[in-house]
Amino acid sequence: MEEKLITTVPGTRDLLPDEISRWHLIEDRARQIFTRYGFLEIRTPIFEATELFARGVGEDTDIVGKEMYTFHDLSGRSISLRPENTAPVVRAYAQHAMHRGGGLTKLYYIGPMFRHEKKQKGRWRQFYQIGAEALGSDHPAIEAETIEMLLELLSSLGVRGELLLNSVGCGRCRPDYILLLRRELQHRTNDLCEDCRRRAETNALRVLDCKVRSCQPIVMQLPRITDHLCAECADHFRRLQGFLSDAGIGYGIVPRLVRGLDYYVRTAFEIVSGDLGAQNALVGGGRYDGLSEVLGGPRAQGFGFAMGLDRLVMLLPEDAGRDAGYRPGVFVAYLGEEAFGKGIAVARALRRRGVTCHLEFAGGSLKSQLRQANKLGAGHVVIIGDQELRRGRYLIRRMEDSVQWDVSMAELLEQLGAGGS
Ligand code: AMP
């Protein structure tokens, strides 16, 4: 009986070599640009104590309440695959007392996140984020600088995104605004979707974020948070806009843009792209000054973002970065068993000299091997046949013009070794 093929779990996928050049391009570019801005890479574990996210992201958020991959490990601990990486980075910052050096700590990460979301185009259950976190400053200039870095990355990749900006106030001004929001919503509960009816009680800010069509007319009429900021928050927001304008960065203010977590303060932003379809958010970010303390760490201000790598890849042309893909400099063709052994030795010697070298283990006729070399785009083919073997000589064929010549091993290495022709 034939076994049924085992395939990937729904919501996950393989990233095949054909696509990976785009991923490398983005990752390499991000490392380059982020480093230039003083962000250093951090790699945290893929799973963490569930409590980190329960406290750090919030138990009544969709991410934690509905979408987390949580299980008990063999020692009975509750573990969760990370659904996001800000809480883990802030945990690491506190755990390793990175604040002790004083000043700013700037960290970036690249890696997979896990959320059991409804399947949809642009939404995966294992997806990848590139994110950056600047810890230790509440200055609006660090926000503008981080956003500038992000936009530089996007524009270097030829991707255009729209920057949407808001201020969600702080512990001083937000509670009054939420009271106001609740009062307004009380008159309209019958017109709200079921989720919003609940949110109106538990987390009224998130009503602003509702995507259900029937809620839209109500949401549009709700008071704007930007009209109810305290003097400090209003000043912060105004200064941020000043720094962005100084950097020549355009933005739209969207008072409905909220990140529904209590410790988010002041700046919230998104970058959206019209080319992405329904799931148009490419980047989400904001200021989270209270997070470190919520996790039991020191008082520390923070600002950061997470960008969806899967979505960014969708915006790049299919062949982006392809040049960096596999293209052997030399293809070793051989005829017969003895020549095969020699072929392995030639490939080894060339690779040690820095040459990308390809050897097909299937053998076959010279014609079929040359065809394969051509398909791979090899620059030269080394041909080893009986005759060559007997004479201790090799044939080099230049693929571009099919010119062939005869060489000794030493000449072969000299001519084809890295730095040779
Ligand atoms: P968030 O952490 O929810 O603010 O998401 C930040 C960014 O990650 C989003 O703007 C998306 O680009 C990306 N993202 C979030 N969830 C998913 C998902 N399930 N699949 C693919 N990308 C996602």
Verbal overview:
This protein is α+β, with helices and mostly antiparallel strands and 421 residues long. It has two domains: 20-173 and 229-314, Bira Bifunctional Protein, Domain 2 (BirA Bifunctional Protein, domain 2), CATH 3.30.930.10; 326-413, Anticodon-binding domain (Rossmann fold, 3-Layer(aba) Sandwich). The chain contains 15 helices and 16 strands. The chain has helices spanning 17-36, 50-58, 62-66, 86-95, 140-156, 174-186, 194-202, 216-221, 231-246, 291-294, 309-315, 337-352, 366-376, 386-391, 409-416, and strands at 40-41, 47-49, 70-72, 78-81, 105-114, 126-135, 162-167, 252-253, 265-272, 281-287, 302-308, 330-334, 357-359, 380-384, 394-398, 403-407. The strands form three sheets. Strands 1-5-6-11-10-9-7-8 form an eight-stranded mixed beta sheet, sandwiched between helices. Strand 15 and strand 16 form a beta hairpin. Helix 1 packs antiparallel against helix 5, helix 2 packs across helix 4 and helix 5 (140-156) runs parallel beside helix 9. The two termini are 54 Å apart. The model has no long low-confidence stretch (mean pLDDT 92). The structure holds adenosine monophosphate. Adenosine monophosphate binds next to strand 6, strand 10, strand 11 and helix 11.
